[in-house]
Structures are given as C-alpha cells and as structure tokens.
Design brief:
The chain has helices at residues 3-64, 66-125, 128-148. With 153 residues, it is mainly alpha-helical.
C-alpha cells in the first residue's frame, strides 16, 4: 500500500467520523428543543392546575362575598392570561432564536465540510508528484476545520 493510499484511507475514516459527530450534535440539538417544549408544556399544565384551583377557591368565596368575588375573579383571569401569553411569547422567541442559530451553524459547518470533501477528492485523484503539495493544503484545512468545530467526545 502506498503512502498516498494509506493517507487517503486515514482521511476517509476521519471524514466519516466527523460526519457521525455532526449528525450526533444535530440529534442533541433536536433533543434539547424537544426538552424545552416539554418543560413549557409542564409549566403551562402546572399553571392551568393552579388556575383551576384558584377558580374553585374563588367560587366558594363568591357564595360568601358575591359582590367582590366577581371583580377579583375577573382580575385574576386577566393576570393569568397575560402571564401565560407573555411566557409563551418569550418561549417562542427564544425557541426561534435557538432554531436560527442551529440552522446558521449547521449551514456554515456543512459548507466548510463539503469544501474539505472536495479538497480530499482532489487529493485522492492527484498523482504521486502532486500528492505531497495537496496533502499539506488539505491537512491545514482539516486542522483549521476540526479546531473550529471541536466537540466533546
């Protein structure tokens, strides 16, 4: 096996490894988004349960204090509606920011990765005389790319 063939085999393995890491990170990001949605649903259900409890309490007190209970109930409902709407709006905004950041990072990393794959294909197709020159260029690009995209193991 020539040095070129061994090097090509090594780089193919590294490219496959990076592709797997990239896919893993994408899956982790999707999992975190799903976790955030679950937390929001839990908070909203918790708020709904609290609201239902407050409504039940207010109904009991309404029998005792008919005139004031109606006003208190109305105020409480408006406050809960406002709080829920505000929380949902904040969550939606953060979620969209997160999605945009993931899309931006994913697109930039994918473009850089595809450029490296192209350089690697040039390296594989190169003759022995051009191999060493292209190998240096590819290794520098690969090192820059992996340094920018370091991920925990």
């Amino acid at each position: 096996m020539s040095a070129k063939d061994a090097y090509v085999q090594k780089m193919e393995a590294k490219l496959k490894e990076f592709g797997a890491k990239f896919d893993h990170l994408k899956a982790e990001a999707q999992e975190k988004i799903a976790d955030a949605r679950i937390k929001v649903n839990d908070k909203m259900n918790e708020g709904k349960a609290k609201a239902e409890g407050a409504i039940a309490d207010a109904k009991v007190k309404a029998d005792e204090m008919k005139g004031r209970a109606d006003q208190k109930m109305s105020d409480k409902k408006a406050e809960m509606k406002s709080d829920t709407a505000q929380s949902k709006s904040q969550f939606d905004a953060k979620l969209e920011q997160g999605k945009a950041k993931v899309r931006e990072m994913s697109a930039a990393t994918r473009a850089e990765y595809e450029s490296l794959v192209g350089k690697f294909n040039e390296l594989k197709a190169a003759g022995e005389d051009n191999f060493e020159a292209l190998k240096g260029t590819f290794e520098k690009g690969w090192n820059d790319f992996t340094r920018k995209n370091e991920y925990p193991s």
